[in-house]
Amino acid sequence: MDLHVQRWGHGYAVFDGKARVSGAFSNRDIALRAQDRMQDEALKAKHARNRPCLTCGTEFWSMGPGHRMCGNCRTNCAGLDAQMVG
Questions:
Q1: What is the pTM of this model?
Q2: Residue from 31, 42, 33 nearest 8 by CA
């Protein structure tokens, strides 16, 4: 991705090369924040894949190496007393 902000109409927009990939923003700072969010999302998507849950082994859609427990195990673990977990 080659994201950059440039003038578009009466405001600013985020472009990938020559293609506009965002709506119009009233000022450049808002467009730059949108560009940062889009780059972060692209980086997260790059690391997303099916992974086995470290607790039960079930395959689930993980957003990256820091997301290694499935939703069921994460929910069950959240209800435990801190002394029981560690």
A1: 0.57
A2: 31
